[in-house]
Design brief:
By secondary structure, this protein is mainly alpha-helical. It contains 15 helices and no strands. It has one domain: Up-down Bundle (Na+/H+ antiporter like fold), CATH 1.20.1530.20.
């Protein structure tokens, strides 16, 4: 267990440094937004481009991994929406954001650094597939569900088209598309450009974790615990179990079993907290405080659940 703690502790130390630096005023909340723009617009797209462009496309787009991860995520999405709607009494939009909280991982900012430390050979490949699934399928679906629950939102097909168009312009997606093109055509960047891209990609891990810590400063929690805790449990425990269950069902669907290493990567990605922009996405719907509380509780609790989960995966493998 000590070696697991040695692996995961630096991740939370980096998050704590970001939190402490912002809390003490060394950096402001506005600085975190600047760091976030750098990571989203430059560092992560560079990392994803390298992950895809430097490998045969068959190594990046693993059908079994994508089916297992997407199946588990959609399973949690449906279960959380139903429970929030029927058991907790949330409205349509509130139930949608509860579903988002348990089905969308912070793959780039937390999942990637963990995989870089635990299984570096698969880290960028798993991230590339998660980017496809989350940004092309799961997040647009959830945003369309949220918009359809707002008064005067317009026809569902128009909401869907607008959401897809917005996602298609994201730098992460553009970096992914560029990487696929370079992989399919077997192109390579000129050496100075390739080194520049790699330089930006290497800035992703530490800065992403520091950013998460700074973002947590000032998030409201008072009175939000009862609403946040079920989302935290669903994300940290339910999501990885759902991905594991979906992977176990692949042979029954006539698909190749998922390789143990890729299965471990997928379960780890599912076990990290929800995406860092979760409160930002909830702000237009009046759900920023509830979403922020869920993010804070989930991130704090994930130290214990991830440590235990990585220990189980290592013992099992």
């Amino acid at each position: 267990m000590s070696d697991i703690l040695a692996i995961i502790s630096p991740i939370y130390i980096a998050i704590l440094l970001g939190y402490a630096s912002t809390r003490m005023g060394l950096f402001g909340k506005a600085d975190m937004r600047v760091f976030g723009k750098f990571v989203i617009n430059f560092a992560l797209p560079a990392l994803i481009f390298n992950a895809v462009a430097q490998r045969p496309i068959a190594d990046v787009l693993n059908a079994s991994y994508m089916a297992a991860y997407l199946g588990g995520s959609l399973l949690m999405l449906v279960a959380a929406f139903f429970c929030a709607r029927r058991l907790a009494g949330y409205d349509h939009v509130g139930s949608t954001f509860a579903a988002m909280g348990v089905s969308c991982s912070n793959s780039g900012y937390i999942g990637l650094p963990i995989l870089l430390l635990t299984m570096p050979a698969l880290a960028s490949v798993a991230l590339a597939m998660n980017v496809i699934l989350e940004n092309v399928v799961v997040i647009p679906l959830l945003l369309m569900m949220a918009e359809s629950g707002r008064p005067g939102s317009g026809p569902a097909h128009r909401v869907f088209i607008q959401t897809v168009a917005r996602v298609a312009r994201m730098p992460l997606v553009l970096g992914l598309v560029a990487g696929v093109v370079f992989s399919l055509l077997d192109w390579t960047l000129p050496s100075p450009v390739a080194r520049t891209v790699t330089l930006f990609a290497q800035a992703t891990g530490a800065l992403s974790l520091f950013l998460i810590g700074g973002t947590l400063v000032g998030l409201p929690l008072r009175g939000m615990g009862p609403a946040a805790l079920p989302i935290a449990i669903g994300k940290l425990v339910g999501h990885p179990l759902a991905v594991l269950a979906a992977a176990s069902a692949l042979p029954w669907l006539g698909m190749a079993p998922l390789a143990p290493a890729l299965l471990a990567a997928g379960v780890t990605m599912a076990a990290v907290p929800m995406l860092g922009i979760y409160p930002i996405l909830g702000q237009p719907y009046g759900l920023a405080e509830r979403s922020a509380a869920a993010l804070l509780v989930t991130t704090a609790s994930s130290f214990l659940t991830l440590s235990a989960g990585l220990w189980v995966l290592r013992t099992w493998s």
